[in-house]
Amino acid sequence: MRRAAEWVAARLDFAGGRVVDTDGQPLVLGEWLGAPGAPTILVYGHYDVQPPGDESEWETPPFAPHVRDGRMYARGATDDKGPVFVALETARAFHAETGALPLNVRFLIEGEEEVGSPSLERFLAARRAELAADLVVSADGAMWRASEPSIAIAAKGLLALDLAVTGPSSDLHSGRHGGAVQNPNHALAELVASFHAADGSVAVAGFYDDVTELAAADRETLARVPFDEESYRTEVGVPALHGEPGYTTLERLWTRPTLEVNELRGGGAFTVIPRSAQAHITCRLVPGQQPEAVLGAIEAHVRGAAPHGVDVRVEVEPGAVPAYAIAADHPAVHAGVEALRAVYPAREPLLVRIGGTLPAAVLFERTLGLKTLLFSFSTSDENLHAPNEFFRLDRLEEGMAAWAALWQLLAAGS
Amino acid sequence: MRRAAEWVAARLDFAGGRVVDTDGQPLVLGEWLGAPGAPTILVYGHYDVQPPGDESEWETPPFAPHVRDGRMYARGATDDKGPVFVALETARAFHAETGALPLNVRFLIEGEEEVGSPSLERFLAARRAELAADLVVSADGAMWRASEPSIAIAAKGLLALDLAVTGPSSDLHSGRHGGAVQNPNHALAELVASFHAADGSVAVAGFYDDVTELAAADRETLARVPFDEESYRTEVGVPALHGEPGYTTLERLWTRPTLEVNELRGGGAFTVIPRSAQAHITCRLVPGQQPEAVLGAIEAHVRGAAPHGVDVRVEVEPGAVPAYAIAADHPAVHAGVEALRAVYPAREPLLVRIGGTLPAAVLFERTLGLKTLLFSFSTSDENLHAPNEFFRLDRLEEGMAAWAALWQLLAAGS
Hints:
The structure is a homodimer.
Chain A: H1 2-11, E1 18-20, E2 27-32, E3 40-46, E4 66-68, E5 71-73, H2 77-98, E6 104-110, H3 120-126, E7 135-138, E8 150-155, E9 157-166, E10 172-173, H4 174-177, H5 184-194, H6 216-223, H7 229-236, H8 249-255, E11 258-267, E12 272-273, E13 276-285, H9 291-305, E14 311-316, E15 324-325, H10 331-343, E16 350-354, H11 359-368, E17 372-374, E18 390-392, H12 394-412
Parallel strand pairs in A: 3-6, 3-7, 7-17, 8-16
Antiparallel strand pairs in A: 1-2, 2-6, 4-5, 5-18, 8-15, 9-13, 9-14, 10-12, 11-13
Helix pairs in contact in A: 2-12, 3-11, 10-12
């Protein structure tokens, strides 16, 4: 980790690049502030990566980069080293060619993004003055599709919790005790089944209460996004799409909150009535929803639906975050769209939303009061978190051209 | 395995004891047929044992027998080596003292009971003549309680199946795809929840169709069995007992069929919509029910309840067996009760039922046309299949006295 941080810091030698300790992994700071009167941006990215997983699934070793067909294959190539490199090289190129950047730039490249940025909030709070800026520009957060330049203007929030059903004091033989006690597997299934209506909507009272409903204009914008439901169905490989009625699939993916049971776990494939059964649940939240309120609704639902003969407990995981959004007409979004148009003149940029979560963007807003423009040149098909992660090499030059245009536009707009 | 079989065969030297190969593990045969005109019994037991499990949970090593407080601790001590030893030593004692047994005795001590006796049916069918008898007396099948001599007159049948729900073609990120596809965990929970009514009865149409309802006399007999529901509740450690209404807990345990979901398994504790989710299910069957008919009812229920947007499959495990029962007024049961009275004059023997399964008894009936008297001196509290399995040593002499009395009664009753 420290070697990676030192490598990043060295690339920022012209900007005082340095490795700084946190409560967890070190991060890298740097700043070039030679443009008085121009705005200041804080460039965010991360140098940490996911574990490689089963290395036998990799065509080439995860930590030995290989170039094939114009793509660099390596763990971290697209999440987030390639996109961070684009930002660093943009700054270096400006500095090398003109001796200056078009605006003031601070850098914060962290090492804990893949584990939920646990040290970041405290670090930001302690360094407010040192990080003062007008806008965060993030090199993290993938584009939607390789063929369509896009800017994400919203990311869902996240609430993770565990549901535990406890019955007998030890595992029981299902032959000797079946029919006399509530089976925790049955009780868990009953609870999990109660979370959704048959139509796919969440059946927890109050779950949708604080959701900011889409404005007609937003729905029109979404309807213009090219999205073929049948292609999507084929891509994910399901017999039929399924979800909350009253919304298109894209509206559900991008703008509706969800409650997904990620794990069911109880007993084993033998004649047992297990003493307990567990579910892991994650809710994706949308603007308006607060994690605490959603948790409260789920807890009340579970209390009301708790089956007979067992104990039921809900435990929330730390690190819940609300949704993040930046207005479609925010000046930074306008500048981002213009910068993409300059590089991809044939393809009108799309404003998209992300079903995943961007805790850092929420933390920048909460701690520093800054909006974040997501301006990554990663694409969501590049095997993020999976074997054979790659980064399209032509995105390096496209990305640098777009970042350069963005900085000039932001400088001019000030 | 072979050494254990050879040890048993050697104990039957006076009866031509020999190790015989099967399609699987060897078994031991032997016979003493020197009582012309007297009935012939087939003594059944098994020399194989369960795996020891986590050896750190054993107070003394599972395969080094230790005697403490009048109990022998070892894997297999009570299931089924102690009870088999009782039968073998009864025969040896008769032979040593009188040069003869009171009736004709064949022995069949198998080595595959703990894995469902997969080779036994074929073996029995091929050796019908060699195994001809009037009755099977089983040294397997534990007594209900140490304080109450008992004979089990019924054991439930078993039907095991797996339920698999398949959704997307690969695991999906629950942030990126949540809300657009049916989550196999949700679908599995919906199906599992549909198997039971809230009152604990099985809600699968046709499940109870062929159940032979208890006669009033049977219910009266059961009502006289000492059974304290509150003690039972405390013993299993549940906040409340739970089960099919209209029956006492003991009636449910001993005479009602059950459908228990032993395992729920899907996804993991991370942000995934799993491609599939599984349940392992075992049904305990009672007299009248056929495994094939119950399977058909479950398959029809699953077809009718299959949630939208996923594929659902039911796969039956091999080895399903119907219930076993011997009439309470069968002469062999009378003889068994008399033999227990002779050894335990202060305690009237109980006729009990077993929630577990006795495939061998079903096979003896189906293949050889023989009823089986369960006459074991194991007790169900002796940690069968668990760490610290033990056998009460005073049961050795009590058991031999009872087996001797039983044989004399059966001989006299002929």
